[in-house]
Write a structure and sequence with these properties.
By secondary structure, the protein is α/β, with parallel strands linked by helices. It is 29% helix and 24% strand. The protein binds adenosine monophosphate (AMP). The site of adenosine monophosphate has 19 residues, from strand 14, strand 21 and strand 22.
């Protein structure tokens, strides 16, 4: 018999501290010896951690950061692959009211530099093999005092410190200070179509919504073993790979390896995973396997599968029904919303290609270009009425950009959608040029800037193009300086450069050389025109184009 857990005991004595709620509070509720995390490494190595251990390790991290002189409100980044230290440090920083920014471990120099200089980060946690990258940019980061390293035994000079050494003498009984709901907690950088990435800042209060959605949408139970495949560099890996499930005392798997169908399905089977949160690209990649592959595995403990990050194609839903006899539940949300806002869920009919409905208390609307609610079934901007618990509280140090996301009492998500007669929401696309490649938002601006650094490249314009596997792929148009020619060597260089400067996800899949990149009279790249050209569709209004 499975026992649903209620959420009424989440906040005790007005303590909203996420680090405390996910660890000490769970121990107080009787889960000290319960498994919090089974970590499985890329080569199958494992380690298991109870809530009591999570509490002690995170307390030590809190102590380490404070003893180094970091104070509440300082920014601390985590730049690691999925290893147990990510979770200890994340929860420890929050316990100490330090703002924590989780980063993708495949970020390049420029991506790191942008985020660290924008936030004025005081410390970063990394592994030894990433040191070179960090030391290359350190000179441009005067506020960065410490680089903590998980896999060196001794401190090196110049603020490069061994985390294990610091942890070995740190007391493990740190008590998180009473933390009001609006205290800043997590900082997630997200890409826009213009300018540098912006840091969406959340408050500790977000735990209320993350916890609620874990109960109401994912419907996690006390005896579940849950696996969220998302990396902590993406908001899903934090809201639903850390805060939501642990605030509810749920045992989790964290897998440090990459996508591999056999490894994934052995994990689902052997660990007896009961609830699984993943993404459409991964599901589409799995769909390439023959049906016989899936018949090898006994997935009888698996109760529910959820998806987020990109549109969930109807074919994927139908495939899930055919192979697993299950619906795959779509969930829609974004970095700024902090938690699921619109979803289908167990117990409700799933309509393939439809995202589902807003959660109770979440007011979502489709707003037409004239600012009024769009008629039923008509496409418009997907907006939310501000005020939900996990709403971002700022774009860190960019008040003007934050304010620009709110108009006439609505938060504009940047997505377009439609709502049907029954109140279901259907995703249509983005209203900006941001590229969603396998669930990761890539800024065309960042890729364009990196391409301009390649010798011989005069201009570049980067767009999203449809892709059957990745949802969207990155396509780069380039024009060359007089006397310079694009060739295979330059293309290889360009790919490597974008990967090193921005990230592997941002690396263009395709390059197209043009004589000129279309621009407005004021010099803005007309990505819309490039896209139409790529797709062979109408160019639309080109009256502002500089011809
Ligand atoms: P991020 O902030 O990186 O998590 O990206 C959020 C964006 O991913 C949303 O604004 C959407 O464009 C897209 N997205 C997230 N979930 C879904 C979904 N279920 N269906 C379609 N697009 C989604």
């Amino acid at each position: 018999m499975v026992t649903p857990i209620s959420g009424h005991d989440l906040i005790a004595d007005n303590q909203y501290n996420i680090g405390h709620i996910c660890t000490r509070h769970q121990c107080e509720l009787g889960r000290a010896d319960k498994l919090a995390m089974k970590w499985i490494g890329p080569r199958g190595e494992t380690s298991s951690h109870t809530f009591a251990q999570l509490d002690r390790e995170s307390s030590k991290c809190a102590r380490v950061l404070l003893d180094l002189g970091l104070v509440p409100g300082d920014v601390f980044f985590i730049f690691l692959p999925k290893v147990p230290e990510v979770y200890f440090a994340f929860l420890g920083a929050l316990k100490a009211q330090i703002i924590v920014g989780p980063l993708f471990s495949n970020f390049g120099d420029e991506a790191l530099l942008d985020r660290m200089s924008d936030s004025g980060a005081r410390a970063i946690l990394a592994r030894k093999s990433y040191l070179k990258k960090l030391l290359r940019i350190r000179g441009q980061l005067p506020e960065l005092k410490y680089i903590l390293v998980t896999d060196i035994d001794e401190h090196q000079g110049d603020g490069v410190l061994s985390l294990p050494k610091l942890m070995s003498t740190a007391p493990d009984d740190f008590v998180a200070p009473l933390t009001p709901p609006e205290t800043p907690s997590v900082l997630h950088y997200t890409s826009g179509s213009t300018g540098k990435p912006k840091g969406a800042l959340h408050g500790h209060r977000s735990v209320l919504m993350q916890n609620r959605t874990v109960r109401e949408v994912l419907q996690l139970r006390d005896d579940d073993l849950y696996w969220c495949t998302a990396d902590h560099g993406w908001v899903t890996g934090v809201s639903y790979g850390i805060i939501g499930p642990w605030s509810q005392g749920v045992s989790q798997i964290h897998f440090g390896g990459a996508y591999d169908p056999r490894q994934w399905f052995e994990l689902l089977q052997n660990e007896k995973v009961t609830a699984w949160y993943t993404a459409p690209t991964a599901l589409r990649m799995l769909m390439r396997e023959p049906d016989e592959f899936f018949r090898e595995f006994d997935l009888s403990p698996l109760r529910d599968i959820f998806s987020v990050g990109e549109p969930l194609n109807p074919e994927v839903v139908l495939w899930g029904r055919r192979l697993f006899g299950k619906d795959i539940y779509d969930t829609w949300w974004q970095t700024e919303t902090g938690a699921i806002m619109i979803a289908s869920r167990p117990g409700r009919e799933v309509i393939p290609a439809c995202m589902g409905r807003p959660l109770d208390g979440i007011e979502a609307a489709i707003i037409a270009d004239d600012g009024t609610p769009a008629p039923v079934n008509e496409q418009g901007s997907l907006c939310l009425k501000p005020g939900w618990d996990s709403m971002f509280i700022a774009y860190y140090k960019h008040e003007d950009i934050y304010r620009s996301k709110f108009k006439n009492g609505w938060y504009f998500s940047g997505d377009t959608a439609r709502r049907d007669e029954a109140g279901n929401f259907w995703f249509m696309g983005r209203s900006d040029d941001v590229i969603n490649t396998s669930g990761h938002l890539v800024s065309p601006f960042e890729v364009e800037s990196a391409l301009l650094e390649i010798e011989g490249v005069a201009e570049s314009g980067v767009i999203a193009a449809p892709d059957p596997m990745l949802f969207e792929k990155v396509v780069a148009f380039v024009s060359m300086k007089p006397g310079c020619e694009w060739n295979e060597d330059i293309e290889l260089k360009a790919r490597l450069h974008v990967s090193n400067r921005v990230s592997t996800m941002a690396t263009p899949q395709e390059f197209i050389v043009l004589g000129n990149i279309p621009k407005t009279k004021s010099g803005k790249i007309m990505r819309r025109v490039l896209k139409a050209r790529y797709l062979g569709t109408e160019l639309g209004d080109i009256s502002t184009m500089d011809v």
